[in-house]
């Protein structure tokens, strides 16, 4: 019995998923680059880019521990969106010239392209014009060949797309449908939604959602809000059926609402966010029920019941864009960059007695397995650690742990489910340990 108790004591709970569910500020120097970060895009858990309203693009390769400024064009260029096909090829969208609220922005280039990970950025000449007013506010990287975009916030309204990795871009004038567009989300290469406003004068405007089933050739109005002084601002879909759209209201007008769908965007219902004035812009959900919204100097709010109730909590302020990386990781940008790392839902255990001198990743056991297996690893220094699962093609399917860990030996279990909680089929899988100074991958076999 004593021996069993001793063994049990060696492995104690390091942290549970709920205890890890906290927002942490990254090391982005907002004071030194004091303009709201309008958009954020992460290619994976570690590599990401942010853009702001003073012509800057910043990159991190270590999950926000360090940031490098790649471009600084000043207020001449007002960046509003960013997205990447892969680690080298990406785009940054700008507001363009002629916006009445951003008269310092005079750049006729509304889209910049990089082919070397952001080291150099060059104008995308296909959309550049000194005579046509347009801007690139919202961007959705659909896959490694397709990007959809919309703009701009105070008009005129345009829809953009490339289906060949940027070789050709199409710009569609949307004036016949709507005066201004802000965000875009596609579900298939042909079907998607866009959101914006019914009047460029905010006091006269209502929020509006439009949908397409032919890749943007034609559009139908899906929903228009009942109130004026309102714009539909950001879209988030934590799953295919459940989605949310934030509604911005100016001038301390109350109450404040948001929109929710439970049928994949076919129908929408309004729900109250705040009984008092609150300038909401950013909204993001980690899953169907857990989410956040914010956008002013007021404290952001959190919901754990799909938006039925909201409570104030601490992240930062001026929140504009949430980016879900996987069910274990989310980022948000605004007056800085914050990171949400809940860790594994299965729990991770740390050996508190033995301190390793080298990194190591052990073979999982049992192997082959059905339905659960255990993975042990060691790290000799404090730092960020990630354990992720990949299928035979190398595609990511699950993150078991992603957070700061103290040096030591750990074990974590995989229950054979992918990130959406569906069962992974029989086959070969890979698990990878990644830290700042180490990476190793091993193979395992699941037999149903």
Description:
The structure is a single chain. The N terminus is likely disordered. The protein is mostly beta strands and 448 residues long. 3% of the residues lie in helices and 44% in strands. The longest helix is centred in the N-terminal third of the chain and has 9 residues. The chain has a five-stranded antiparallel β-sheet. A four-stranded antiparallel β-sheet has the order 2-29-28-27, with no helix packed on it. It has a four-stranded antiparallel β-sheet with strand order 3-4-5-6, with no helix packed on it. The protein folds into two domains: 115 residues, Macroglobulin (MG2) domain (Immunoglobulin-like); 318 residues, YVTN repeat-like/Quinoprotein amine dehydrogenase (Methylamine Dehydrogenase, Chain H, 7 Propeller), CATH 2.130.10.10. The protein contains two helices and 37 strands.
Spell out the blueprint of helices and strands.
Blueprint: H1 2-10, E1 11-15, H2 17-20, E2 23-25, E3 37-42, E4 48-52, E5 56-60, E6 68-72, E7 79-84, E8 90-94, E9 111-114, E10 122-123, E11 138-141, E12 147-151, E13 158-162, E14 170-173, E15 180-186, E16 192-197, E17 207-212, E18 220-224, E19 231-236, E20 243-248, E21 256-261, E22 269-274, E23 282-285, E24 291-294, E25 301-303, E26 311-312, E27 321-326, E28 329-334, E29 336-340, E30 348-351, E31 360-361, E32 373-379, E33 383-390, E34 396-405, E35 408-414, E36 427-435, E37 438-446
Antiparallel strand pairs: 1-30, 2-29, 3-4, 4-5, 5-6, 7-8, 8-9, 9-10, 11-12, 12-13, 13-14, 15-16, 16-17, 17-18, 19-20, 20-21, 21-22, 23-24, 24-25, 25-26, 27-28, 28-29, 30-35, 31-32, 32-35, 33-34, 33-36, 36-37
């Amino acid at each position: 019995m004593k021996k069993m108790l001793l063994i049990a004591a060696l492995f104690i709970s390091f942290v549970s998923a709920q205890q890890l569910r906290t927002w942490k500020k990254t090391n982005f120097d907002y004071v030194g680059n004091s303009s709201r970060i309008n958009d954020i895009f992460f290619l994976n858990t570690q590599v990401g880019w942010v853009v702001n309203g003073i012509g800057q693009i910043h990159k991190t390769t270590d999950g926000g521990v360090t940031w490098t400024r790649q471009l600084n064009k000043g207020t001449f260029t007002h960046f509003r969106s960013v997205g990447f096909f892969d680690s080298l090829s990406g785009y940054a969208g700008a507001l363009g010239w002629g916006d009445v609220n951003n008269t310092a922005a005079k750049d006729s280039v509304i889209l910049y392209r990089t082919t070397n990970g952001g080291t150099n950025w060059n104008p995308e000449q296909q959309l550049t014009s000194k005579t046509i007013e347009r801007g690139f506010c919202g961007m959705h990287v659909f896959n490694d060949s397709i990007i959809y975009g919309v703009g701009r916030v105070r008009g005129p309204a345009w829809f953009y797309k490339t289906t060949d990795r940027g070789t050709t871009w199409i710009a569609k004038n949307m004036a016949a449908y709507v005066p201004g567009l802000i965000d875009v989300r596609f579900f298939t290469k042909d079907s998607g939604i866009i959101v914006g406003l019914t009047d460029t004068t905010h006091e006269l405007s209502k929020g509006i959602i439009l949908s397409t089933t032919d890749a943007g050739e034609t559009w139908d109005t899906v929903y228009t809000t009942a109130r004026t002084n309102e714009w539909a601002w950001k879209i988030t879909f934590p799953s295919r059926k459940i989605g949310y759209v934030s509604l911005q209201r100016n001038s301390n007008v109350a109450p404040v609402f948001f929109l929710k769908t439970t049928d994949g965007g076919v129908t929408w219902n309004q729900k109250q966010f705040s009984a008092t004035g609150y300038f909401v812009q950013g909204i993001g959900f980690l899953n169907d029920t857990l989410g956040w919204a914010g956008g002013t100097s007021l404290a952001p709010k959190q919901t754990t019941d799909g938006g039925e109730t909201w409570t104030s909590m601490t992240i930062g302020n001026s929140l504009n864009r949430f980016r879900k990386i996987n069910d274990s990781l989310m980022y948000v940008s605004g007056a800085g960059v914050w990171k949400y790392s809940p860790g594994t839902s299965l729990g991770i255990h740390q050996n508190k007695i033995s301190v390793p001198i080298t990194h190591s990743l052990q073979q999982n056991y049992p192997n082959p397995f059905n339905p659960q297996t255990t993975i042990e690893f060691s790290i000799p220094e404090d730092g960020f650690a990630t354990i992720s699962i990949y299928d035979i093609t190398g595609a990511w399917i699950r993150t078991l742990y992603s957070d700061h860990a103290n040096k030591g030996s750990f074990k974590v279990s995989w229950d054979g489910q992918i990130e959406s909680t569906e069962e992974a089929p029989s086959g070969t899988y890979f698990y990878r340990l990644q830290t700042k100074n180490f990476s190793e991958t091993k193979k395992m076999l699941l037999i149903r």
